[in-house]
Amino acid sequence: MKFDRLVQKFAGDDPKMARLVTYWSVTVLLYLLCIGILWIEALSGVADTTRAARLTALAFSGHFLFYHLIRRSKQLNLLPEQLSVYQGCFAIVVTVLGYTVVGPMRGATLVVLLVILVFCAFTLEARKTRAMSVFAVVLLGTVMLTMWISAPQRFDVKTEIMQFVLIGTMVVVVGVLTGRMSELRATLKSQKAELADALARIQDLATRDDLTMLPNRRHMTGLLAEEERRRELSHHPACLALIDIDWFKKINDTYGHEAGDQALRTFAQEGRKVLRGHDVLARWGGEEFLLLLPGTALADAQSVLERFRRQVEQLRCAHEDRSFGVTFSAGLVELAESEACRDGIRRADALLYQAKSSGRNRVMAAIEDRV
After folding, report:
1. Which residues, 6+ apart, have CB-to-CB distance to 355 below 8 Å?
2. Burial of 244 (0-12, 13-18, 19+ CB in 10 A)
3. Alpha helix (H) ranges present in the chain?
4. Which of 36, 179, 261, 321 has its CA 20 to 30 Å from the CA of residue 8?
């Protein structure tokens, strides 16, 4: 547990941050391997120890600087892609400088350039990966030319040209391949996002009513089951209201079915505006709606529903050159402690029938009629 806390403190709680720190740690191991080879050469008298020490200090100073940049990337508004560009360029510079320090084994250090480009392919766009490859080849060529001009006695021209052609070709090929891999990764990421959006749309279509954009009956049934499970644990109150648009058939017969659809949409829009954020209004079927008021006692639920009813009766629905009003009747119940929602809906349905029989445009609430 102590080790886990230490790792969490080092890498952070954010999974993305932890992944970046993990990549950083892997590159530390690679640096240690290369620096180890460099110092074997230096201690053997093949490489210059002063230059080896300077390169070692540069490598680890830069690496620890990048660790702090990674950990503070959010505060500094640094994107992972930006950090990868900076780290990649720094690694290429250090590797090419290492080539000038190491003795006869310096050709082996150039393999690290290939590893750097492969690492960059995981975070960079194809264009930037290819640009990194060009940068590596140009820098390497410039350094080799400088070495040949400044100290021709230490370098064999033929060997340097062969190494440059070989590693340059490999870097270009790896750059093209990793660029292609970056394109494929970007394509897969885009396709994944499109699939996620499509799934979200399908899920929305499966749970919402097309006309009113309210939750449909299937989705509401699932929400009621969740509410029952919550009430078993918390025993908080909850109310249900079954709502029916008054004289809906008359609206359809008088003004047409499009006017009826407009009445349903207007009712739903007003419900979204008037009802509280945690209340759930769903289309139950036809012109019938079900309202769930979680965590609400009967008196408070009645106040909410009465406010909703008053707002709706003031509305006017426009259709072509005519307008008409909309009202609703409702049966409201507070669920008993162990009462299933389906039983509460039956009681609300009976109260809705009473509301309609009593003249409509009213809310009938159960006060003592509990199961």
Report:
1. 329, 330, 331, 362, 363, 364
2. buried
3. 2-11, 15-43, 49-71, 80-101, 106-109, 111-120, 126-150, 157-207, 217-234, 248-255, 257-274, 298-313, 341-357
4. 36
Domain limits for position 39: 2-201
Instruction: Confirm if 260 and 254 have CB atoms less than 8 A apart.
Output: no
What digits encode the pLDDT tens for the residues 24-76?
787 788 778 878 878 887 888 877 888 889 988 998 898 889 888 888 888 88
User: What is the distance of C-alpha 294 from the center of its chain?
Assistant: 29
**Does residue 158 sit in the same domain as residue 293?**
no
Residue 110 contacts residue 122 (beta carbons within 8 Å): no
pLDDT digits (tens, 9 = 90+) for 164-218: 787 778 777 777 777 777 778 778 888 888 888 888 778 777 789 989 999 999 9
Task: Tell me how far apart the alpha carbons of residues 172 and 134 are, in angstroms, rounded to a whole number.
Answer: 7
Q: Report the predicted TM-score, pTM, of the whole model to 2 decimal places.
A: 0.54
Domain contains 158: yes
As annotated, the active-site residues are 287
**pLDDT of 96-116, one tens digit each?**
888 888 766 666 677 777 777
Residues 99, 180, single domain; the answer is yes
First CA to last CA across the chain, in angstroms?
52
